[in-house]
Amino acid sequence: MIRFILVVIYVVLFLILTIPLMIAEWIIGKFNPERKDRHSKAIVGWGFRCVTFLSGTRVEARGLENIPRDTAVLYVANHRSYFDIVLTYALFPGVTGYVAKKEMKKWPLLNVWMANIQCLFLDRENIKEGLKTILLGVEKVKKGISICIFPEGTRNKVNDTFLPFHEGSFKIAEKGGVPVIPMVITGSAQVFEDHLPKIKKATVVIEFQKPVYIKELDKETRKNLGSYVQGIISQRYFQLKDGIGG
C-alpha cells in the first residue's frame, strides 16, 4: 500500500503545485500554441516518469525506430491498465494527445493538463458528438499532432484477452492521411489492476510495430481495419508472453 499512497500523494501535489504552470501555459498558448504544446508535453511527461518511478515499474520500450518522425501518426494499443497512459506517454517523440472518455472532463486540474496535451474527450453514448470528436482528431493529425487511441473502447478487465477493436477508431488515420502505429502493451495490469488497491513492482513491455499505411491496403482489409490491426497486436502480444522474438 505504500506505493499506492505515494503515487496518490504525488499526483495530488503535482496537480496543485503546477497551477502556476497552467496559468503560464495558458498565456503562452495565446501567443505561441506550438511552444505551449512542447512545454506541456515536457511537463506532463516528467510527471508521468515520476509516477512510473514511484510505482517501481520498469518500462522496456521496443520498436521506437518504427515511429515516423516526419508525420503525425495514430497510435493504437490494447488497453488493460490505468497505467497504460502513464507508461506510454513519455515514449512518444512528438506532441501526442489521447482519446479519453468524456467523464474525464469532470476531474478538476487534471482536465486542464489533458487539454494542454491535446487530448480529445469522447462521448461514447452519443454518435453525433462522437463523430465531432473524431473530426477534431482528423484536424489535429493534419496539423502534425499525433493521437493515441485504445480501440477496445474501454479498459479490458480480463488478462490475455482482447475486446473487439471499433472500426470508427481508425477514421482519424484514414481521413487524416496518417499511418497507424500498432502498439503492444504487456504486463501493465501487474502494476495495479491484478491486485487492487496495491501497486507492485512490475516490468512492462511496450513494443511499437511497423507503420500501417491504410492506402497501401487492399479494399477488403481497409473495410475491416479494426480486425486487421487487432490481429497484428494480439499476435505479437502472445509472442511476447511466450518469450518469442524478444
How would you sum up this structure, described in words?
- The protein is of the alpha/beta class and 246 residues long.
- 44% of the residues lie in helices and 15% in strands.
- It has helices spanning 2-17, 19-31, 33-54, 83-89, 110-116, 127-142, 171-176, 219-223, 225-241, and strands at residues 57-62, 74-77, 96-101, 120-122, 146-149, 180-186, 202-208.
- Helix 1 runs antiparallel to helix 3 (33-54).
- It is globular.
Query: Any low-confidence stretches, pLDDT <50, length ≥5?
Result: none
Q: Enumerate how many helices there are, as a single number.
A: 9
H-E string: HHHEEHEHEHEHEEHH
Give the biggest beta sheet.
7 strands, mixed
Derived structural class: alpha/beta
Number of E strands: 7
Key structural traits:
alpha/beta, 246 residues, 15% strand, 7-stranded mixed β-sheet, globular
Structure summarized in a few sentences:
With 246 residues, the protein is an alpha/beta fold. The chain has 9 helices and 7 strands; from the N terminus they run H-H-H-E-E-H-E-H-E-H-E-H-E-E-H-H. The two termini are 32 Å apart.
Topology:
Elements: H1 2-17, H2 19-31, H3 33-54, E1 57-62, E2 74-77, H4 83-89, E3 96-101, H5 110-116, E4 120-122, H6 127-142, E5 146-149, H7 171-176, E6 180-186, E7 202-208, H8 219-223, H9 225-241
Parallel strand pairs: 1-7, 2-5, 2-6, 3-4, 3-5
Antiparallel strand pairs: 6-7
Helix pairs in contact: 1-3, 2-3
